[in-house]
Fold this sequence. Notes:
Blueprint: E1 5-6, E2 14-20, E3 23-31, H1 36-51, E4 68-80, E5 85-96, E6 101-113, H2 119-142
Parallel strand pairs: 1-4, 2-4
Antiparallel strand pairs: 2-3, 4-5, 5-6
Helix pairs in contact: 1-2
Amino acid sequence: MSAPVATAALDSERILVRSAPEEIAYLPGAQWGDRLPQLIQARMVQSLENAQLLASVSRTGQGVAGDWSMSGEVRRFEIDAPSGQAVVEITVKLANNAAGRIVGAMVARGAAPGSAARPEDAAAALDAALAQAMAQIVAFVRARV
Length: 145
């Protein structure tokens, strides 16, 4: 599984806050432990391993050729200040490597109440929204493998 691609604003260790449709900032004094795409990749691997849908799950570049591959894009991973919501939107494509074709694509979405008032609250809200998106991704993979 490759790390999802993300815009420059999201391909960061910083927590994004959207204060208006075209206006973004970063939450002062807060950051992720790694770049967001790597954190999401780790969470996808963990979610699929926990679901026990496949014999094994690995990251791209670990020297393992698998039967399936998945790629994605992080479209939203932010605190939307006007709505008071943490919003996550991730696209994924699942490919059957033996057949050499994409077997499905979807957009996973999650939302949870959250604000940028305190970094720990923002992080918890984004984690809850991500959990919803990961559940959708696992269900999507379950239906296709």
